[in-house]
Each structure stands twice: as structure tokens, then as C-alpha cells.
Amino acid sequence: MKITFWGATDEVTGSMTFLDFEQTRIMVDSGLAQGTDEVEKINLLQLPFEASTIHAVFITHAHLDHSGYLPRLIKKGFRGQIFCTPATAKLMRIILTDSASLMDESFYSSKDVVTTLQLVKTVEWEEKININDSTFHFQPAGHILGASSLIIKHSNKKIVFSGDLGRHDDPLFLTPVECPEADLIIMESTYGGKCRQGNIDKELASFLIKISREERVGIVASFAVARAQMLLTLIHDFFQRHPEEKVKVYIDSPMMKEANQVYKQYAHLTTRPHDLYNALDEIEPIDYLRQWDSIKKKKGPLIIISSSGMLTGGRIFRHLQNWQHDAGAILFLPGYQGVGTPGRAMIEGNRTLKNQDKDSATWSGEVLTSEAFSSHADQSELIKWLTSKNQATRVFLLHGETASKLALKEKLQERKFSVEIPERGKTLEL
Ligand SMILES: [Zn+2]
Q1: Same domain, 134 and 242
Q2: What mean pLDDT is reported for the chain?
Q3: Looking at the structure, do residues 240 and 100 belong to the same domain, yes or no?
Q4: How many angstroms does the Cα of residue 23 sit away from the middle of ligand 1?
Q5: Distance 316 CA to ligand 1 centre (A)
Q6: Same domain for 147 and 206?
Q7: Which of the listed residues 327, 354, 370 is the one where a domain comes to its end?
Q8: Do residues 302 and 411 both lie within one domain?
């Protein structure tokens, strides 16, 4: 059996690993590299294998950096099966459709997305999939709806892919199921170098109270899938517990609206199905024809949640432009802002934003940030996931900045694990 590392080796995004068994070639995750132009060039590299020779792809979860390369794989001739959980399949449809609408058609188009979705075969957690002489199953990984780790059995060997792992105190999801005893573990290390700072409930409450009591306008930048549903649930819960605080909350993102439907359908997979369902059921998307003329003149207290989460596009620009001269307005960025993104520039003090049409807005209000809202396990949680059933196992670290990988490597080596940080294109015989 051979393993070839391809994506998320030198960068955080673009997860993609190949396994070559005697009779079967599979791919675990098929993600897009995202970030600077330099990073995105990785998406144009020739793959180490002909797409048509791959039998199956296993997708751990719907995030673009784990599923966003699939339509490209189709365009290159892949026609095997794509396995994922039912919730992942639903979210993937939304994410890939949006991705195709932003993509140069020569890379992939919505037609390729349609073909991708036709090849999807959904499986429940723990359901066994047999391909030739290998067996595969998914187990819950927290993180976002449907997210999974993948466990592979092949000739008495067990291989585990962590996928992205959720935190142990996630507001919506259970702690990821721990890594089973394995011979080889391929693990993410996004937060391998640090322990999470901040407290979601406290930071959100202080923002909401400010908006409510000081009658301010709050614009919240959120990813349309996962982050938005968590925020909406927590905001709804806060106002249930504090009926004295009154703030009108709107969402403005067609993709968020669609993702809300999927989260409602699979609310039973979360730890607070009723809160989540009610929050998403009651939230009002802005109706531009009927409401915009009145909303745009509004003073606080008012909150609008829109995307994108790092201000790279989406409808949020319209709101920042509309309230740009309101010195009391607050732009809330609840999440990591990638290097080179407008969100990061905002935090660093560059308050002028441009949209695709070169329209500009200069934000004169407050900018609030928080890193507490991460949906990733931190260093101690990653170690716990791995070490509860494994000792001195061989581990490959992916999906993290170099410093994170090195920090986690050191911690695991202290515990006698054999840890490697693979390079792109590296093939190992196992
Ligand atoms: Zn993810």
C-alpha cells in the first residue's frame, strides 16, 4: 500500500491525500487551496494520478478546502463514487454551487458540480463501505454539521484520517469521537500550536449588550455555512435569556438562508436541536423589494449578519457602505481573518474597502474581533483525541501552518509518537 500526500502539506487549505492499495486507488478529501494568488496556483498543478484511475473519493466534511476541488476532478475525468455523510452532501451542494459561480469556467462550471453531485453516495456514521479488500467508515468529528473522521481497514492495518476536528466545548456539537487504536494516523494541526483564547458566550454577550443598550448598528461578518448557524443559535439563546434586551436581527446572504434549511433538517445531530431549529426558523432574511428602503435608514439597535466572513465578497459590502459614516456602528469579525484578506486589513487599521465593481466604503465605526469562535480543536484537544487510545503510533501532520505543525510534533514526540510532516508529492510505501 502506498500513500501520496498532495494537499494541505505546506499550507492550511486544500486537503487531498491519495491511497494506493493493490487493486484500488482512493482519495481522501478533494479540497481547494485558498488564500493568496501564490497558494491558489496549487489548484492548477498536475495531480500525481490520472483522475480517471481513482476509484472513490471520501469527503470528511463540506468545507471548500476539503470538497472544493471535486468538480475539477470531474472535469479531469473522475467518474468513481464520492462517499460522505448525508448532511455533508447537502452542505456540499450549496458550497460547490456557490464556488462554481465564482470560478473561471475553464477551471470548472456549474455543469461539473451537477455531475459531481450525481456521483455522491451518502453513508451514515459507522456504516461500513467495502471496496475490494478494504473497509471504510466515518465517525463524528464535531467541527461542522456532518463532519467526520475516516477509518480505513486494509490487510490487518488500520489507518485513520482525522478530518478537521471540532473543539470539546463546541456550542453545537459533541466532542469528536476519539481516534481508535490505529497503525497510521493522518491528522490536522490547524491549532496545533496554541490553546484557544477567549470565551464565546462572554464576547458575544458583550457585543449584543452594547448594541442593545447603546442603540447601535452591528454588522456581523460570517461564513454562510456553519459559523452563521452557530451565531444565530447563540444570539437567539441570549435574547431568550435576556428579554429586556431588544435588538432586531436580520440575515443577508442567500447561501446562509439555504444552509439554515440544512441545519434545521439535521438539527438532531447537534447538542441543542430545539434552540437551533427555533433560531433558524425565526430569523428574517432581508427582503430587498419590501424592506431595504426602510432598513437602510434605520438607526440601532439593529444587527445584520452577512457574508463573507473575511469581507472578500458577498453582500456585506452593501451594509458597510450604507452605515460607513455612522461612527457608532460596530463591525464584528467573529473569527480568524486570513492574511491578505480585507478582514485582516480592517483589523490592522486599513478601513477602506472596495468591492468587485471598484465601489469603495470607508468604515468610520468600531471594529471588534474575536478568535473565540473557532470550530477547531486546539492543541490540548488534538492531543487528547489522539492519545486516548494510541501510544507511540506513526502520525503524519497536515493542514496547519509550519509553526503549528512543529509545535504539535514536539508535543507528540514527548509522548513517544513517531511524527512526520510530509511534503507535497511525497509517496511512502507502507
Ligand atoms: Zn473545516
Answers
A1: no
A2: 95
A3: no
A4: 30
A5: 22
A6: no
A7: 370
A8: no
Q: What is the dihedral of CA 26, 144, 187, 132, to 10 degrees?
A: -20
Query: What pLDDT is stored for residue 73 in this prediction?
Result: 97
Is residue 348 within 8 Å of residue 339, measured between CB atoms?
A: no
Cα 361 to middle of ligand 1, angstroms: 31
pTM, entire model: 0.95
pLDDT beyond 80 at 10? no
33: left (phi over 0), alpha (psi -120 to 50) or beta: beta
Give 428 Cα–ligand 1 centroid separation in angstroms.
26
For position 398, which CATH number holds?
3.60.15.10
User: Using CA atoms in the order 173, 274, 93, 189, what is the torsion angle rounded to 10 degrees?
Assistant: -10
Same-domain check for residues 33 and 175: yes
Interval between CA 172 and ligand 1 midpoint (Å) = 15
φ, ψ at 27 (rounded to 5°): -130, 135
Instruction: Give yes or no: residues 318 and 419 share one domain.
Output: no
Given this model, what pLDDT does residue 355 score?
Answer: 86
Are residues 183 and 210 located together in one domain of the fold?
Answer: no
| Mean predicted confidence (pLDDT) in 50-63 | 97
Across the range 168-187, mean pLDDT stands at 97
Domain enclosing residue 411, as ranges: 2-194+375-429
Distance 188 CA to ligand 1 centre (A): 10
Position 8 confidence tier, pLDDT thresholds 50, 70, 90:
confident
Measured distance CA(410)–CA(107) in Å, rounded: 39
| Confidence at residue 356, expressed as pLDDT on a 0 to 100 scale | 82
What spacing in Å lies between the alpha carbon of 164 and ligand 1's midpoint?
5
**Cell matching residue 194:** 496554541
What is each CA distance from 296 to 58, 256, 299, 322, in whole angstroms? 45, 20, 9, 7
Same domain, 301 and 387: no
How far does the centroid of ligand 1 lie from the alpha carbon of residue 111, in Å?
A: 25
CATH code of 352's domain: 3.40.50.10890
Q: How far is the CA of 137 from the centre of ligand 1 (A)?
A: 19
Structurally, the chain folds into a number of domains equal to 2
